[in-house]
Amino acid sequence: GAVPANQKSGWASFVKSIASFSGDLYSMTAPPFILSPVSLTEFPAYWLERPELFAAISDGVDAEDRALRVLKWFIATLKGQYTSRNEKMGSEKKPLNPVLGELFYGTWPDQNGRGLTKLLVEQVSHHPPITAYHITNESRNLTLSGHNAQKTSFSSGAILVKQVGHAILTYAPPGKDVEKYLITLPRLRIDGIWYGAPYIELTDNGYIQASTGYLSTIEYKGKGYFSGKAHSIKASFAVNPTSPIVVVEGQWDTVTKVTSVKGSKHAKTGETFTDVTTPKEEVTVAPIESQNEWETRKLWQNVANGIRSGDFEAASKDKTRIENEQRQRRKDEQAAGTPWQLKHFVHLDEDADYVSLAAMIKDTTNVLPTEDCYVFKPSSV
Ligand code: CLR
Q: Is the CB of 187 inside a 6 Å radius of any atom of ligand 1?
C-alpha cells in the first residue's frame, strides 16, 4: 500500500477523525507521509501556468471570441489545479495551512509579446482559511481577482470539498467597454483515502458568465459517467438563454475537442479545443534570501525542508514555533484592541460584479451558482 508501515496507525486515526467530525481538515494532525511542503497561498499560481492562453483572451476579435478564449484558458488550468500534486508527489497531499497575513508574490515573464503577468496572494483569514489573489497582465488589459475557501465533508470514504469563492476576470481595454467574467469553481471529490493515495475528481457543474451575455455551463464527470473516462468535461457555450452554439467535450487533463457548433464562426466541429499534454510554465518567485518574513517560502522554509528531506522532527518543531508566534500575536492584538490589518485586500460586504453576474446565471439556469459569504477586493497592488 501507499502508507508506510510505521505510519499505518497514524493514518487510520487521521481517517477516522475526518470521518467522525468532518471538521477543519487543516487543523487536523496528519501523518508525515501525506504532508506537502507547499502552502495553499501558492495555489492561485495554477491560474497562469499557461500564460499565453491567458494573454490570448485579449486577442479575441469580438465578445463571443473572447468568451470562448476565456473558456479555453480556464479548462487548460484544471490539470495543474487538480492533478499536479499527484504528478509531482505521487498523490494528493495535505498542504501547509497558511497563517493570517502570509504573502506570495510571483511573475511570468513577458515572452513572444504576451506581456508580463504578476501574481499577488494574501491569506486574508485563518479561521476559516481564506486565500485572496490578484493577477494582472497590464499590457493585455487583463486582471483576475478572487478568493478561495473550502467546506469539507466526508461521505462513503471520500472527502467532499465545496469551494466557497469565485474568480472574476476583467478585460478593460482603454476607451472601450469593460468586460467581466464570473468564474465559479468545481466541487471536488477526494477518493483513495483508505489506501493513503488520495486523488481528486471534479463533480457537479461550474459556470463562466460573461457580462456580454455569453454563458459557459461546465459539467464535470468522472469514470463511469458519460464517457467512462476519468476527468471528463462537457462545456456548453451559449448566449443567454438560447441553446448552445458551441459544445466542447473531452478530458480536462489531456485533450478536449469541439463536438458541436451551431452558429459560431469562432469554432469548428472536430477541432482540438484544449491540449494540456504540453509542458506548462511555473511561476517565477524571488529567491528566498530576498523575501521578507511573511512571504510563504521564507516563512515555511524550515518546515518545507524538513518535509522534503524526511526530517519530520525539524519540520514539526518549526511548525509549532510558527503556530505559537501566531497565537501570541492574536493575544497581543486583542489586548491592545488593534486587530490585524490586511496588506493588499479589503473586506467588503458585497461585490456588485459578483451579484449581477451571479444573477445572470440564476436567470438562465435557475441555479444560484455559489453561496459566497466573503468578498475581498485588492486595495493596493
Ligand atoms: C484550493 C484552490 C485551488 C484548487 C485546489 C486544489 C486542491 C485542494 C485545494 C484547492 C484546497 C485544499 C484541498 C486540496 C486537495 C486536498 C486539500 C481540498 C481547492 C485538503 C485540505 C487536504 C485533505 C487531506 C487529504 C489529502 C489527506 O485553486
A: no
